[in-house]
Amino acid sequence: MRENTSATATTPEPLLDLEALRADTPGTAQVVHFNNAGCGLLATPVLNAVLQHLELEAQIGGYEAAAARTDQVRSFYTELAELLNCAPGNVAFAGSATHAYATALSAIPFERGDVILATRNDFISNQLAFLSLRRRFGVEIVHAPDLPEGGVDVEAMAALMRSRRPRLVAATHIPTNSGLVQPIEQIGRHCRELELLYLVDACQSVGQLPLDVARIGCDFLTGTCRKFLRGPRATGFLFVSDRVLAAGYEPLFIDMHGARWTTPGNYTPSPTASRFEEWEFPYAAVIGSAEAVRYARRVGLDPISRRTPDLAARLRNQLDALPGVRALDRGRRLGALVTVAVEGRQPQEFKAALDARRINSALSFREFAQYDFGDKDVDWCVRLSPHYYNTEDEVEQVVAAFRELTR
Ligand SMILES: Cc1ncc(COP(=O)(O)O)c(C=O)c1O
User: Fold this and answer.
1) Which of 59, 140, 312, 398 has the fewest CB atoms below 10 angstroms from its CB?
2) Which residue positions in the chain have pLDDT lower than 50?
3) Same domain, residue pair 167 and 115
4) What is the rounded distance in angstroms from the CA atom of residue 225 to the CA atom of residue 235?
5) How far, in Å, from the CA of 145 to the mean position of ligand 1?
């Protein structure tokens, strides 16, 4: 693959060598994959890394294969550390972003009356976790208001930080239900100034936008490898800051990998983020994830983050211009998730018609985003999420399909 960010006034060089990237991605010959917010298409080197490890497990045994591949396993941490701008010891593997999030929450000793300050666009499962904490521990959940143009009002959120002194501040970088990109660095600056614990869900942004945990100023950051990083399924990670590690935060249920059982009545947590991991690992998937991060870094987060939202904007604008189709994404900054309401159609039927044209999409429903969809007054929408390896031609194909299906 070739990275070329230089451009002349007359003939701009392409940001990426699309032909090579698509040749590396067998799925692009089969489908128009606009469901990267669900799961990205695997690149061949990632697929091979997973398959080779499974083959080794079959040949020499699962534990023995893991021992033979310690370097590749270690590269999961070094690659993510490079991607996020932290040390390998700040990274824990997790089987999903939700599991990483719950494990981080479990480390916070919430008490009755503690405040969790979140945004109206935090991910559904995070909101459910907050509600569960409210049910069990009596915490109070406060949602910062949105700006009229969409996205959280950071100044209002900062005022709530000062007046309510939350036990935790939470924000989802890009929600599952719209293309909104929340200003997580601005929120983080206030958290650092006030020394508040800050948890960021970067599940939809990792692999799509550059992430720098030092600039974000977060204490925890969660992500998946299967979406815009294009890794295998059931892989994710948790970043844990040095502050949190030094302060002794540990998950409620720590296991023999996360801690040493030092005496019959005591244990010592691991000094690194590995205290948030479990002993059992899907080694093939971990090695595949390391390869996916390596691949994304080789393609380059800078060109990826310029091409991907541009492709999405092109799609969003064209769909919004069609009669009966309404783009729903709002906010000062938008990413690669495009959500549209389609008038007078049934969700499953509409998606099935896209499936029949080999166009991969997803549906979102009111209960995925009670606040956002309530504000927008929609019960469901179609979500389309291109990635850098999709083409302008594919955007035209999707628009043509919508034109035909909404006629
Ligand atoms: C914003 C956001 N956070 C978290 C998740 C959960 O990720 P996982 O399915 O890996 O638990 C998703 C999944 O769609 C998401 O969109």
Assistant:
1) 59
2) 1-9
3) yes
4) 5
5) 23
